[in-house]
UniProtKB/TrEMBL annotation:
<dbReference type="InterPro" id="IPR001375">
    <property type="entry name" value="Peptidase_S9_cat"/>
</dbReference>
<dbReference type="InterPro" id="IPR029058">
    <property type="entry name" value="AB_hydrolase_fold"/>
</dbReference>
<dbReference type="GO" id="GO:0008236">
    <property type="term" value="F:serine-type peptidase activity"/>
</dbReference>
<protein>
    <submittedName>
        <fullName>Peptidase</fullName>
    </submittedName>
</protein>
<dbReference type="GO" id="GO:0006508">
    <property type="term" value="P:proteolysis"/>
</dbReference>
<feature type="domain" description="Peptidase S9 prolyl oligopeptidase catalytic">
    <location>
        <begin position="85"/>
        <end position="254"/>
    </location>
</feature>
<dbReference type="Pfam" id="PF00326">
    <property type="entry name" value="Peptidase_S9"/>
</dbReference>
């Protein structure tokens, strides 16, 4: 199992090679961004982008924030976006773009711990896949945890959700398929919740809703709720948060 092709990207880091990869999922060609260290790989971080199409697209600078000299980074574009074939279903068949990409990485780098980071819409992508791929941990950052809550809170997104998912009353089953929280239990991999308390795009209610379930199910988790921060944190707060994320990944790998 491997990528179909790799194309070098005009993004340069001393420690990593950057490539756009193409791989086959459900008979269609999906693309993603790959950063491979020149040294031995001892950690894999999979970044799940937010938005759809050109909104929230994968940015090398954002992915590079999570690199170390021995960390491989991968970010699927999702089908229907940035040259990928198919149609984005917002937590539907596009979830396979995540799982198949990770299966390829697990084949290429067996026994290497994998951490998933879901930002914004990437939150639901990760919650619906991180157990299937047996991730070491999942970090949800300003992430969506409930599609029905998203429909209720984001009035301006309702037409998009009706188009991509359906109406929550008429196509209730489609929203139930995207309900990841119900399948998280005490034996699920640990979750780190990061959220700005002033987030206007993804309400803090999403984080509190997820935390309540994790607490009830006795899942290992931690939270970082930032006063005065919105959907995107200010630079210094972001740096502090990234530092904590690295410590979190170390702890999870050491079963602490």
């Amino acid at each position: 199992m491997d990528f179909l092709s790799k194309k070098k990207m005009p993004v340069f880091f001393q420690s990593h090679e950057t490539e756009e990869v193409t791989y086959l999922v459900d008979g269609i060609k999906v693309r993603g961004f790959l950063m491979t260290p020149y040294s031995e790989v001892n950690r894999i971080v999979v970044y799940l982008r937010g938005g759809k199409g050109q909104v929230g697209k994968v940015r090398p600078g954002r992915i590079a924030q999570f690199k170390t000299d021995h960390t491989l980074l991968f970010a699927p574009y999702y089908r229907g976006s940035n040259g990928s074939e198919g149609r984005d279903e917002f937590g539907g068949k596009d979830l396979e773009d995540v799982t198949v990409g990770i299966q390829i990485l697990k084949t290429l780098y067996p026994n290497v711990p994998i951490h998933m980071i879901g930002f914004s819409r990437g939150g639901i992508q990760g919650l619906l896949t991180y157990q299937k791929v047996n991730a070491t941990s999942f970090i949800i950052w300003g992430g969506v945890s409930d599609m029905l809550m998203m429909y209720d809170e984001r009035i301006e997104l309702r037409s998009m959700l009706r188009r991509m998912v359906g109406h929550p009353k008429k196509q209730r089953s489609e929203y139930e398929l995207r309900n990841a929280i119900k399948d998280i239990h005490k034996d699920s991999p640990p979750i780190l919740i990061i959220h700005g308390k002033e987030d206007k795009q993804v309400s803090i209610n999403m984080a509190l809703h997820l935390e309540s379930h994790l607490k009830e199910e006795h899942v290992k988790y931690e939270t970082i709720y930032k006063e005065g921060e919105g959907h995107v944190f200010r630079p210094q707060v972001e740096r502090d948060t990234l530092e904590y994320i690295f410590k979190w990944m170390d702890k999870c790998e050491n079963n602490e």
